[in-house]
Amino acid sequence: MACPAVVEEVPEKHCWVCFATEREDVLAEWVNPCRCKGCTKWIHQSCLQRWLDEKQKVNSGGPVNCPQCGTEYRIVFPKMGPLVYSLQHVDKTISRVSPFAAVGVVVGTVYWSAVTYGAVTVMQVVGHKKGLSIMERADPLFLLMGLPTIPVMLVLGKMIHWEDYIVRLWHRYSGLQIRGRPMRRVPLEGTLTRDHLSVSRTLCGALIFPSVASLVGRLLFQRFPSSLQRTVLGGIAFLLIKGTLKVYFKQQQYLIQTNRQILNYPEGNGESERDGGSQRGEEYAEDSE
Amino acid sequence: MACPAVVEEVPEKHCWVCFATEREDVLAEWVNPCRCKGCTKWIHQSCLQRWLDEKQKVNSGGPVNCPQCGTEYRIVFPKMGPLVYSLQHVDKTISRVSPFAAVGVVVGTVYWSAVTYGAVTVMQVVGHKKGLSIMERADPLFLLMGLPTIPVMLVLGKMIHWEDYIVRLWHRYSGLQIRGRPMRRVPLEGTLTRDHLSVSRTLCGALIFPSVASLVGRLLFQRFPSSLQRTVLGGIAFLLIKGTLKVYFKQQQYLIQTNRQILNYPEGNGESERDGGSQRGEEYAEDSE
Description:
two-stranded antiparallel sheet, homodimer, 289 residues, mainly alpha, disordered C terminus, Herpes Virus-1
């Protein structure tokens, strides 16, 4: 901003935003909101208001200081009536409470679905009619507490990776001899246990388990008359089959990692030999020993 | 790595990881995995495997190159049996499908809660017994489609901020004269419409509306025998009362923003005068005109 040399004694007001002087707009309201002297002392009230609006877009409603001398502008508002004051209070309270209420809605949604899932599972396990009659006779409080624990227990149960313990025990007691020859190396832990981190897989596996147990029960244990017996046996059978396959699979993965081999660079060299990588699988039989 | 000058002719193998030579460990397996010549040509198979494990911790399973010549190491694995192969395929498929299944679980949870909420709302609006009998007689498919639309419609309805339109219309047709004197300024749009962004407030307000309508109906319209009539009238009454208060509140907020005033810096200056900010409210009456 160019500041005219004649400042003191008869200072003509001069707005540092629009550069207009007192003579150019006689009616305009002037304000000197800060400790600035000289050519940045005066500003139009309306120019400062506009400038303040722009500033407060960023720090909505916070204090604004003079960019030159740093004085905080003193902004006053007309007094609120008691109704407006209480409405503002109500508005603020609602704004403060509503996030917690929304969390409550989400928790309620999850809880209610867990109750429903629990009820459906009970009917699936003991049979539709018997399940209904059991739940009708039971204490409602017990149902509201007990039914949601069913999916929780299923998920917690799914988080026990018992197959891994068996694989680890197997490794410990089989020693370092596998198929009679010394093991090349022990692979890093992380490479084999990556799937534990999948939340979605744990959740889905846990929630689908009763249906699978019921299905396996109906397929393998038809001669049992009771739906409960069939489902429990089906669940145990499924767990055993799946566990066995998983232990076998993990053990094979472990062996594959253990017997990984890095090949010599093909000595004939040149570009033609570098394509030989596609025959890696075949080369291995000769190369691995 | 210090590389001995004698390299060609009778090159003694020399591992560039553990610095051991051929004579130090006669049984160790050697590999020259890349185009490197000289002292970085040879490495122990076991040393390279360890080094590879460290590298693959970061880019799990990806290709690894020689840090010197950039040749990609050729890593081979023993061939998998058909069972392991298919197990791996199943494992990968489950890992790929489970995120979608988990999304399905979440959607199902929300859907089921919406159905339940819809059913509770129907019973709240038309009365418990009548609601139950209506839903028992209705087509199940219609219920499964119709009931979840109730909370959806409530939320969509809550998103229509009709009070704002009224406030805006009021401003447009009242012109720039408010209470007989010209308006100081027009506040920025953003400062008054901030609460629209609150998702939690919209959600909670929408979901609590039927309960509030039912309550207001029971309080104000006791003489109506039908629960449906009471609730509908209660809802309308609540919307009108709330809307009127909101329009009034927004209008007052608008006026407060419009008549914001920035004060002159107290001329007596010095530190003592700067505390005068606490009396801003009182000063305004004299200062605002």
